TrEMBL record:
This is UPF0473 protein SY83_14130. PANTHER family: UPF0473 PROTEIN CBO2561/CLC_2432, UPF0473 PROTEIN CBO2561_CLC_2432. Transmembrane segments: none annotated. HAMAP family: UPF0473. InterPro entries: UPF0473 (IPR009711). The lineage of its organism: Bacteria, Bacillati, Bacillota, Bacilli, Bacillales. Belongs to the UPF0473 family.
Amino acid sequence: MTKATDPIEEPELIYIPDEEGNEEEFEVVMKFEVDNSDKKYMLVVPTESDSEEEDEVYAFRYEEEEDDLKLYTIEDEEEWNMVEETFNTLLAEQEEEDSK
């Protein structure tokens, strides 16, 4: 599994088209692979937010083919619960490391 992106590193940015086809910029905050599976997941936050509130985190399953990145929405509730649980676990581990 991959831990959360180190804040010292240059942020990884991706562009995702919205409903109108406009490219929106997102920062990748975490990538991880599920054990015993070939599925990879990515969690992103928008780089520009319209509100002062916390950024919403978006999760996608992804595949990389050479220079091509394909994102898939997570529609299965069981898969979503697994992604959410993994994210929370990795985030807690990262916060624990940061507090040392």
